[in-house]
Write a structure and sequence with these properties.
Chain lengths: ~400, ~525
């Protein structure tokens, strides 16, 4: 009898580790990163064998010397990552983060240029209006989804284009903002810029602090509040949430608006940042291109398993290897190599579920085989159950 | 030496970390009806999948007529003459009966179908065994009973001699059940061998020659039906004594809790109304059961009552308050509890922890939240109390992910949540579906306890035994109309079956008495 109890305890401890959702998504992200780097290395070997090792070294370690810039470039994709991940928690695929991001940029720019305000609050108002711009662009697909059941993927892709062309048009038509000789807007006045963190030689600013804080706040909202409870329940099983009387439509609209707000903030953080890299911020160039930050956000959210804290780390990581990747040009590689690596990482993290269930299965079966003879089986029930589920779904 | 047609000897099938079949032996004699009995998850389907070549066992062998055979896929099984009627029919809905029967073994000349030949064979078979089907009817338009007969013909058409019936009576009316059992007996007389998977003990006692019992993946034993009793079988299956008779006092109905007047609900599938001008009421302290064959408007009626669907006309009153236009949350808050038909689809968020599921209807109440923040301490306390009171078993208590729990315990969690919530009316839709006898006993007792606590209970059930044993009053629904109101003490399964199939209805005065 005692023997059995011991086993029971052992079993629980073991399960606590492998069944912990955080652990398994972390493990699978690590595996994805590893495979991505290996694949990148192979591509580099094929492209230019003698430089591959040096190039790989830059990718892995290059970011270390430029940590400030790592955080600077992480800020916008962290926010778009949250925009995608947050909506994904509710089962919505917000592919419109780019449009929301662009609207956020425009709103922030407009306030920065056109509104006369005391210096101390100008940048804050600019940030908040960026959020409003993004929210607006998330809200509309949300309304379409809730009331007309139009798929949010379609509307938000359309809103990417509508937002981008609209912003380009409005900027080109505005004499105060746009300077036709440089085909871009003027540089923002100093007082509407986000304060720098004052670390010399880098562009890191308060934006990253805000972004991380927002990530933590979302984590708290998702874990601790009734809104988060409803949101996740709806994402997992919308029928059960309806059965429990949750207001599905309101929640869809709210989620999309909040997600849009995050992307809008990302746009504001990007455009209002003080930067020594010319053209990377404080000015907007209307070139009829969808902002890549939105799509980077999808990558960030996938790698972070849509978990707010995971997204903080994955955004910083992706920014980190991107910085390193630009250095590979020193040994003759095109900087696109790093996009290949990131693509492979995302590809593998899409397999996350399969990989980590496989991994924990291997560990479990090892463990079980040793103790096989002692185990009192109460588990066949669960497997047969889940098999039943599958057949039900098939029908 | 007995003449076994199929022997499965020492079959062990392991899934990673789990032994689904542990050294199981099943020997099927030629010309017998052999029942395979076991609770959900006992390993019945795994064993049949092994026999069908869907799984390869780790240990053990299968013999046919004493010779070892290898069954690597369902085609091998078919070649050995093994056929199966699945619980959920595998028919192509938009094909005719005939097309379904020949599917996969179509007689053809140079690629052109030769249907007339096939039709002749099908008609012959259906006449020989009394399996009446219309070969040219489309499957989507025929009754469940006829679909099942089409499935049986499919096996006969392939000249199968070993026939597996997986819970064949689950969806049938009593008359149809009688028929199918007769047909099975006929097959056995013909020399065909039948494996009959079920958990209905009455049917085993009626038709089977022998019965093999599995429990938790292990082989418990094989018994001759002649020498055994229902009680003994159930004890073998569950491992403890089960009482079949539901013990309850006479009901003492009091004031009306739910009153429904002229309720009409449109159908989502077809143009007609799914529920047609239905009126009834339920009083405090009684269990009213809505009996009927699946798909006669029960789901729509319940959805209209709970607010999941909109009624097109009529009124619903709960405790004299008109709730027809209230949303789900408001109905729930004003005293309606609902054990849904599909516990995975509606009843639970499977990815959530047990404690989170236990507050699914209450997380917004003051006790569990303050300013939008969930009071997790209270949730934990509440969950622990329900787990103890309702005996919900799980691996890690309140933090167990519900998906990993067994079906019976998942249902217990829903029942605990709905019964513990403040309520005047409990709507329970097929609350025992897919559960084993032990869990069924538990559910019935909970329903009766709720009734005795002075609540009104509305039970929707497809199981006749449940209808007759648990309810105080029976309403029969047929094609969206309530065609009869019966007293369970005075009616018989046969009479109930006539109402359920629309052959009989009590009209006018009688039906109005209940209002």
């Amino acid at each position: 009898m005692e023997n059995k109890n011991d086993l029971q305890i052992k079993k629980f401890k073991f399960k606590n580790i492998t069944d912990n959702a955080g652990f398994s998504s972390f493990a699978s992200a690590m595996m994805a990163i590893f495979f991505g780097l290996v694949f990148g290395f192979i591509v580099m070997l094929v492209a230019s064998p003698p430089n591959a090792v040096a190039g790989m070294k830059y990718i892995i370690l290059g970011g270390l010397g430029r940590l400030g810039d790592v955080f600077y470039f992480a800020t916008p994709i962290l926010m778009t990552g949250l925009a995608v991940g947050f909506a994904f928690k509710m089962g919505l695929f917000n592919i419109g983060a780019s449009g929301q991001y662009t609207m956020g940029m425009f709103f922030a720019l407009y306030v920065g240029f056109m509104w006369d305000m005391p210096d101390s609050i100008h940048w804050i108002v600019a940030i908040l209006s960026g959020m409003v711009g993004g929210m607006l662009w998330g809200l509309i697909p949300g309304i379409f989804k809730a009331f007309l059941n139009v798929n949010e993927v379609i509307t938000s892709i359309m809103f990417n284009y509508i937002g981008m062309y609209l912003v380009d048009m409005l900027i080109k038509g505005n004499g105060t903002m746009y300077k036709s000789t440089t085909t871009r807007t003027n540089y923002l006045p100093l007082e509407s810029q986000i304060p720098s963190l004052g670390i010399t030689g880098t562009n890191v600013n308060l934006g990253i602090i805000f972004a991380v804080l927002i990530g933590v706040i979302i984590y708290i909202i998702l874990q601790k509040t009734t809104f988060g409870y409803e949101l996740k329940a709806t994402g997992f099983n919308k029928f059960a949430s309806e059965y429990a009387g949750m207001k599905g439509k309101t929640n869809i609209i709210l989620t999309m608006a909040i997600a849009g707000g995050f992307a809008g903030l990302g746009g504001a953080f990007a455009i209002l940042a003080p930067s020594g890299i010319s053209g990377s911020s404080m000015t907007y160039e209307p070139i009829n291109m969808i902002a890549s930050a939105g799509f980077d956000g999808i990558a960030v959210a996938l790698l972070g398993s849509s978990h707010p804290i995971g997204i903080i780390f994955s955004a910083i990581f992706i920014s980190y290897i991107k910085r390193g990747g630009t250095l590979t040009s020193l040994v003759g590689y095109k900087p696109e190599i790093i996009d290949v690596v990131i693509a492979v990482i995302i590809y593998f993290s899409a397999f996350a579920a399969i990989m980590n269930s496989g991994l924990s299965r291997i560990i479990k079966s090892r463990f079980k085989n040793k103790e096989l003879s002692h185990i009192e089986e109460d588990e066949p029930e669960t497997t047969v159950k889940s098999k039943d589920d599958n057949t039900k779904e098939e029908e | 030496m007995d003449n076994y047609i199929i022997e499965m000897l020492g079959i062990t099938k392991m899934f990673p970390g789990i032994i689904a079949n542990d050294n199981i032996t099943l020997q099927l004699k030629k010309g017998e009806i052999h029942a395979l009995l076991g609770e959900n998850g006992a390993g019945k389907s795994t064993l049949m999948s092994v026999l069908f070549g869907l799984y390869q066992p780790e240990y053990g062998e299968i013999r046919k007529n004493g010779e070892v055979v290898n069954i690597n896929n369902p085609n091998d099984a078919n070649d050995l003459g093994i056929g199966m009627v699945h619980q959920h029919f595998k028919l192509v809905e938009i094909f005719t009966v005939l097309e379904n029967i020949i599917l996969g073994v179509e007689p053809n000349k140079a690629g052109f179908l030769q249907k007339s030949e096939a039709r002749k064979k099908v008609v012959e078979l259906s006449e020989k065994y009394g399996l009446s089907v219309d070969p040219d009817a489309y499957v989507e338009e025929i009754t469940v009973g006829m679909q099942q007969r089409a499935e049986i013909l499919k096996m006969l058409y392939r000249d199968n001699e070993i026939l597996i019936f997986d819970e064949p009576t689950a969806v049938l009316t009593p008359q149809e059940i009688r028929e199918i059992l007769q047909i099975m007996k006929g097959f056995a007389k013909e020399g065909k061998s039948i494996l009959f998977i079920t958990h209905k003990l009455n049917e085993i006692m009626e038709v089977a020659d022998r019965c093999t019992v599995l429990r938790k993946g292990k082989y418990i034993g094989t018994v001759d039906i002649e020498d055994t009793t229902k009680e003994e079988l159930s004890k073998m299956m569950v491992g403890r004594d089960i009482s079949f008779k539901v013990k309850k006092e006479k009901s003492k109905p009091k004031e009306i809790v739910l009153s429904v007047e002229n309720l009409t609900v449109p159908s989502k599938i077809h143009k007609n109304n799914a529920v047609k001008n239905v009126s009834f009421n339920i009083k405090a302290g009684e269990i009213v059961c809505l009996a009927g064959i699946d798909g006669n408007g029960q789901t729509e009626l319940v959805n209209a009552l709970t607010g999941l669907e909109k009624a097109s006309s009529g009124t619903i009153r709960l405790k004299e308050r008109d709730i027809t236009r209230d949303n789900i949350r408001k109905r729930s808050a004003s005293g309606m509890s609902h054990i849904p038909e599909d516990r995975h689809k509606h009843g639970l968020v499977l990815e959530y922890k047990l404690e989170e599921n236990l507050v699914l209807q209450r997380y917004w109440q003051k006790e569990f939240q303050k300013g939008g923040f969930i009071k997790f301490d209270n949730v934990r306390k509440y969950a622990n109390r329900l787990i103890k009171e309702y005996d919900i078993r799980s691996g890690q208590g309140p933090v167990t992910i519900v998906r990993s729990m067994s079906g019976g315990n998942q249902q217990k969690a829903i029942i605990a949540r709905e019964i513990d919530k403040e309520h005047e009316l409990l709507i329970a839709v097929q609350p025992t579906r897919g559960l084993d006898v032990g869990a069924i006993e538990y559910v019935h007792n909970q329903l009766i306890k709720t009734r005795d606590a002075g609540k009104a209970v509305f039970l929707v059930s497809l199981e006749l035994e449940e209808v007759l044993n648990v309810s105080d009053r029976i309403l029969v629904i047929y094609e969206g109309e309530i065609v009869g109101e019966l007293d369970p003490k005075e009616t018989t399964p046969e009479e109930l079956g006539l109402y359920m199939s629309g052959a009989k209805r009590n009209t006018g005065k009688e039906a109005n008495d209940g209002k």
